[in-house]
């Protein structure tokens, strides 16, 4: 790695960019400007090397077999868990490997459903839902933090309620206190919106949940890659994030859970590697995290995720957050200067992460995306798996530019310059 712990000005970012081979690519004959990290980030050389090294030198199943390769693979796998746990302020046995954050949310929701059905014995009684109990989300949630709760409600008779957002996508003042109450059992929300970039008032929501005796589930997909996050300090019960949004491969995600809660939850998937004793009539399960890791695991992906955490730590999450805040300010200011642009989310860059979704008057988001792609600029178009939020804005789709540690002010300027030509190209300019 060539990265050093330095302020992330454009010179420092240029050194970081040398670790990402794809940033040397051209698209349609133009240098790639990658502004889609909110969907999937690029991967640096050390992450690719970590996954390749395992595949070339340590291929074996973990927690099985007594031969040397199996022992070495298991050690690497569990070392990765320790490194990822350290990255988010957790203990190793509070980190469960999943395929992605979506699976992690489903794991919690399905396990609570199993507890409600009577699985897990007395230890799981604290999770059981009754008809009329409430699961509180927000109007801004990604589908992955909404649909699993809808399904849990359908299975248990619970009710899903949503905290509304205002015209800037911020939670309406006082609305959370009006909705979170004595029937609330779960409060699930995103740390940062993948559409408006707005940061949630975590302290307030956790305080209200604690007063109601409710569990707190945090979707940290858009925060863990971009800023220092300590789940213990945030006082959440469960949290989820995905590797592919933070320099790691696809196919690896993380569920964080308080040790005592994970050990009380009944399992989600069952099979090999998560049991102690099996008879033809019943089974007994290992403590967390293994009780939630049935079958062959995502070994090389977990090791690569740990390498990604190492990379981000060396660069410095505080520096990454400051850099992205500067890029966000440049994005927000530039977008508001372009005629016909409607920015989604707060106009104060300090209240948002380094992404910006917007509507372009008279031009469909997909057309805007294709125009930008012709200029070599990669952005996301669509509803970003947040249809209720887009419906709140009377939109079916938007265009989203999202930055990361390897983006420069020149990337943002190239995007804004190209976007300024879109409406005239499609005959939508006045």
Number of strands: 17
Spatial order of the strands in the main sheet?
4-10-9-8-7-5-6
How large is the count of helical segments? Answer: 15
- In the CATH classification, which architecture of the largest domain applies? 3-Layer(aba) Sandwich
| Computed Rg | 22 Å
Task: Please identify which CATH superfamily of the largest domain we are dealing with.
Answer: Type I PLP-dependent aspartate aminotransferase-like (Major domain)
The CATH topology of the largest domain, please? Aspartate Aminotransferase, domain 2
Total domain count: 2
Stretches where pLDDT is under 50 for at least 5 consecutive residues are none
Overall average residue pLDDT: 95
Structural class: alpha/beta
Helix content: 25-40%
- The coarse overall form would be globular
Name of the CATH class of the largest domain: Alpha Beta
- Major beta-sheet overview: 7 strands, mixed
Q: Strand percentage, roughly?
A: 15-25%
Distance between the termini: 50 Å
Task: Give a structural overview.
Keywords: Pyridoxal phosphate, Transferase. Its EC number is 2.8.1.7. This is Cysteine desulfurase. It is a single chain. By secondary structure, this protein is of the alpha/beta class. It folds into 2 domains: 10-43 and 316-425, Aspartate Aminotransferase, domain 1; 50-313, Type I PLP-dependent aspartate aminotransferase-like (Major domain) (Aspartate Aminotransferase, domain 2, 3-Layer(aba) Sandwich). 37% of the residues lie in helices and 16% in strands. The chain has helices at residues 10-17, 45-57, 68-87, 101-116, 147-156, 175-179, 202-212, 231-234, 259-264, 299-315, 317-336, 365-374, 387-392, 409-419, 422-425; strands at 26-27, 30-31, 33-34, 95-98, 134-138, 159-163, 184-190, 215-219, 238-242, 253-257, 275-278, 283-285, 341-344, 355-360, 377-378, 380-382, 398-402. The strands form 5 sheets. The protein has a 7-stranded mixed beta sheet, with helices on both faces. Helix 2 (45-57) runs antiparallel to helix 10 and helix 3 (68-87) packs parallel to helix 10. The protein is globular, with a radius of gyration of 22 Å. The model has no long low-confidence stretch (mean pLDDT 95).
